[in-house]
């Protein structure tokens, strides 16, 4: 999958000490779970 992000968003995701792919997955999972909770 290819996704395009703004440069400032990528800089924030890739800040030192963080695995940006795992960080992005965690952010998306949290958003997904929050949305699912709103629907129930």
Describe the fold and architecture.
By secondary structure, the protein is an all-alpha fold. Helix content is 68%, strand content 0%. It is built from 2 helices and no strands. The protein has helices at residues 7-13, 20-39. The protein is elongated and about 35 Å long. The model has no long low-confidence stretch (mean pLDDT 92).
Residue fraction in strands: under 5%
Average pLDDT reading: 92
Which structural class matches the secondary elements?
mainly alpha
User: Please, how many helices?
Assistant: 2
Uncertain segments = none
Distance between the termini: 29 Å
What's the shape?
elongated
The string of secondary-structure elements, in order, is HH
Could you outline the blueprint of secondary structure elements for this entry?
Blueprint: H1 7-13, H2 20-39
Short précis:
The chain is about 70% helix and about 0% strand.
List keywords for this structure.
40 residues, mainly alpha, BrnA antitoxin family protein, BrnA_antitoxin, single chain
């Amino acid at each position: 999958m290819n996704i395009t992000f703004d440069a400032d968003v990528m800089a924030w995701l890739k800040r030192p000490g963080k695995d940006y792919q795992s960080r992005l997955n965690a952010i998306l999972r949290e958003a997904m779970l929050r949305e699912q909770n709103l629907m129930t």
